[in-house]
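User: Show me sequence and structure for the first protein, then do the same for the second.

Assistant: Starting with the first protein.
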Amino acid sequence: MAHATKKVNVYNCVLELRKKRVKMVQEKEQYIFLYDVLLETLLCGSTSIAVSDIQKLSHQMSVRSPTTNMNGFDREFQAVEKITELYQIFPCKEGKKLENQTKNRFPNILPGDHWRPILLSSLTRYGAPGYINAVFINSNCQDDALIVTQLPMKQTLADFWALVWDYKCTAVVMMQRAQDLRENGARFWPENRETCFGAFKVNTTETNPCNGYTVSTLNLTKNNRISDSSLVVRLFQLDSWPLNRPIPENPAALISLIGEAEKFQQQMSDSRILVTCCDGAERSGLFCAGVIICDQICSDGCLDVSQAVRSLRRRRCQFIPNVEQYSFCYTLAQSYLDSFETYGNFK
């Protein structure tokens, strides 16, 4: 209807369907979903790519038009930017409360109330669940599979570990180097001794360097609990993304990190991956995009970077903030496929 007449009438369409079968489009959420589908399709178009075409189409998208000086990545990102404007209307009432303002590193990056994890192990002075600047993120196949949060500040260190404990975040991914914490965050784990953070004790038992990232094993316990009540947490630090670079230096290292983090997290049921960076957006979003992209390729046999970024920006509109990161998502997809050539055939 949109392409044929340049107009759409969702109400009349649903009305006609109901004349044929009364209970079509039963829920208000389904009716709203129709508008979402229309909007995304009309603004962004068809952006899905078959696995076999990824390399060829990525190369074609890198070619700039002589008239507009834009390439395919620019055009797709521009469409995503346009639709993101609508995602900024979601309420962030808790983050704006006076008592929570000091817990936000940046006042313009707040968690939406609908997908903000609440803290049960860190209560307010009134006994209500505690606040942390964090959001749930859907993977390609699972709701709320990941949690993204800002690097903890001194006043939120205990809240950070309460988040890990309450939501069984057995894998914690830090999207920057440990030495950069001096500039934009507080160190939240001990190097070689047990340290208390509020009601929690953290003990580092092992640290091993890998190709482009470092892996540490932490033991998390809660005070006043029985001795066997603990959580083993694997901390992954991406070492190949200096502060002065817009994208990581080694896409293969990030793909490897994603695989290892997912493998460890899947060893415990109902557990999640926690992703953190300075603002809880700019760098963390790239890890989440990588998770979705790898799953698209493996589960669906296709790649849709635009859809992956749109789904992320519904939860936090500051994810994937520039076209450099957006085009790097295609690089990650190719790197993921290359890993199958190295270690086995892709099926």
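Switching to the second protein now.
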Amino acid sequence: MNRIYLDHAATSPMHPEVIATFSEALGSVYGNPSSIHTTGRAARKVLDDARKLLANSIHADDNEIIFTNGGTEADNLAIFGTAAKKEGNHIITTVIEHHAVLHACEKLEREGYDVTYLPVGENGSVRAEDVKNALRDDTILVSIMMGNNEVGTIQPIAEIGEVLKDTDVTFHTDAVQAFGILPIDVNKLNVDLLSVSAHKLNGPKGVGVLYQRKGTALSPLLYGGEQERKRRAGTENVPAISAFAKAAEIALATMEEKNATYEQFKTIFKDVLDKQNVDYKENGSNSMPHILNLSISGIEIESFLINLDLAGISASSGSACTAGSIDPSHVLVAMYGEKATEIRNSIRFSFGLGLTSETIEQAAEKTAQISQRLALK
């Protein structure tokens, strides 16, 4: 059975060119970039080149890029690093954030911080006006994701940035799901901190970036060496960082074409369901092109996912980091309420490398067949 992988929002397969870059670096770039000898300087050049490419990808300066081991560390560094450095104890976020943000905020609450969790409407979007109304004299941080990982809703980051532009509040956005899909200019968005992870855009796992605007206060989480301008101790993973840069280069060069293809995939998928008279609705609005979250009438999500898996289709419900949990999606609960049917019958299909119109049509056909079969029970 040829599997059809429709869970690219959880993680993505590495691009062949990225694998080649990674493999080559593993074998040849073995020096410590902090060493001053020739071997170390060779590793430093690879690191510097990757840093420059990734900085340019979001219109930042090279020294504003901090390499991390992924999106979770980047989010944690942004939140705990800001809290440790700034006076005040109020933080604003939303109820639909990734757990890397939510659980970090919950820990700060246990330590005496006051956190405001802004609601979203049924479209899955927060309002910039609500951010403005929630601001207080002691607000130190606003953390709002750029694109939601479950329903794909694009948040009004530029509008929120305008609200915060003339304040002393640090503005962080988790762009893990959006980087490589949406064009990002940190200056136009007016963000101070921005998190990115390589494995969402066909790069390796275990490497990410936190953008830190020059002058933004931030305390390190890790102590040891003086890597990353004393902001993140630990010898840099040069091969993975090199591969990350290659993945970003490919993603940015193909963004427009890729997104048009993903929108076409959405149309194909929904057209098949319509022709098969499947009763469904799309969750969220103004969604990123690679995420399609559907509420399908008459099904229970756990048995539906098992049947899809047996049919050779990999999809998911909720976020990847809570896979296997029977707890309802906190995003769908925020959108519809705890008793809504959507929290029991919604599934996320997400697109990426290796898919074609034919495989999308096949997946939609199987989805229709399974939904009709389970709805009869």
